[in-house]
């Protein structure tokens, strides 16, 4: 017998979901189960180019920038979801961040990251509506 342990994932079932467990331990789900990012689920990776965060899997993102980054519009966000982006400049530095249309900043100013090699910047976010992600004031140049 095998045991599957899942952490940091919440699933929602309603009364129309049918779950059956066979005598051999096989579990069958007869309807779709919607998984949401668990509290604190973090994606840690190196990124460049257009990157679309998977907000159904992760709440927070720690990305080392290896080139300029365009933050793509997600399709997996949930209203009320919040978290943060940590952008780390690689050893070269001078990497920039551009935003797709669903990201909103105060006054429409965009986000300017620190450009020093190894600089660490933190940008909070909250999903205010489907297709609207509010980015908070960046905290720059952590040392």
Description:
This protein has 143 residues and is an all-beta fold. The chain has a single domain (38-142), classed as Jelly Rolls, CATH 2.60.120. Helix content is 0%, strand content 47%. It contains no helices and 12 strands. Strands 5, 6, 7, 8, 9, 10, 11 and 12 form an 8-stranded mixed beta sheet that branches. A two-stranded antiparallel ribbon has the order 1-4.
* Helix and strand composition category: mainly beta
What portion of residues is helical?
Answer: under 10%
Distance between the termini: 49 Å
| Number of helical segments with 4 or more residues | 0
CATH 2nd-level architecture: Sandwich
Shape: globular
Report mean pLDDT, rounded to a whole number: 84
How big a fraction of the residues is strand? Answer: over 45%
Question: What fold name stands as the CATH topology?
Answer: Jelly Rolls
Radius of gyration: 19 Å
Fold blueprint:
Layout lengths: L8 E4 L6 E3 L5 E3 L4 E4 L4 E10 L8 E12 L10 E8 L7 E3 L3 E2 L15 E10 L2 E4 L3 E4 L1
Parallel strand pairs: 5-6, 6-7, 6-8, 9-11
Antiparallel strand pairs: 1-4, 2-3, 7-10, 10-11, 10-12
